[in-house]
Amino acid sequence: MAVGLLPRPHRFDVSIAVAGLLGGVAMWALGLHTSGSGLLPASWGLIPLAVTAGMELLRRTRPQFALVVGALALTFDMLTPGNAATIIMFTDLAYAAVLYGTPAAARRIPVITGLISVAVMLGFLIWWRNPQALFVGLGAGIVSFGPAATGALVRNHREAAEAARLRAEQTALLAEMDRVQAVTAERARMARELHDMVANHLSAIAIHSTAALSLDDPRTSQDALAVIRENSVAGLNEMRRLIGILRDGSGDLEPAAAPTLDGLDALVAGARANGLDVGLDTAHGKLPAPVELAAYRIVQESLTNALKHASPGRVSVALAQRDGVLDVRVTSPYGDREGPRAPGSGAGLVGMRERVALLGGTFEAAPEDSPDGKIWAVRATLPVSDTPQGDPT
Questions:
Q1: Which of 31, 45, 128, 263 could pair with 80 in a Cys bridge, judged by C-beta atoms 3.0 to 4.6 Å apart?
Q2: CA-CA distances (angstroms) from residue 145 to 85, 137, 311?
Q3: pTM of the entire structure?
């Protein structure tokens, strides 16, 4: 900002002011005048010329003030023989007032200048009583209304272009947000699937390998190694299958069919082979595929957690369909555990909670008291009808 109240003028505005002033002085020196009234000497025309040139310095920063002062200078110039440079610079002030002024001024100025042009035409027509007065009104319109209307058109075009640019930026931002959300959701889905497919096998390997190392019993070690080999081969096959899916079907691997509740017997049998005492009680009819998959994964993860953390005792798995929902309940003994344990990260509980949330159900997992002592209970309620179209995987 310059020293004082007035802001520093734009360089282009300075160029307009200097060119207009020098051009006007040259016209005055050559005796080139417009059809002014001539009530004042021609030298007096330099005053409105200088004032209008000064207002050109404010055309961008103080457009409305510059237009008002320029209009007064043009009125004074009409009392002299007139200077074309003053008129030309005034037209630029009218244009700039609409282009750079406030939105309200941009709406008012074209209307006001149009009314002034009509009023001038009618006034001279009544005064002269001669059709020549129409040309006076036309000249007033060219000097005031024309530039103001042009400024309004340019401003509207710029605002439309800016609005289109902002819409394009918003569209790009929304598209990027959608992409990030899609990537995040896909990563979460992959994490759940990887955890559910492999964690059970790795947990069994960890438990039995620890037992084999801690117990000096050849028979126990042999049984543990058999379980370790079985789970490592199964886990490796699952990993290969998942890698094949992630590589978009490269190789001969095909995605495995989504597990259903028909596979719970095999799942429980595998848990029993890993040393769990599991009881299964199911009572349900035909269920939507997303509900079956979510219920299967919840039971699978609960059995894996029981294998890693539960105390010795009975593990119960119960599924019951009622009132448009499927209730899934898995309980296991809770308390201090002797013997080997597998580390847990909490990702399994997070995955189960996410699966239930995608279907619009409820999920709880916490210790509670029972007639047989302290137990860890996992409860999930999955809506069977009007299931949201989420991806439970």
A1: 45
A2: 18, 11, 91
A3: 0.52
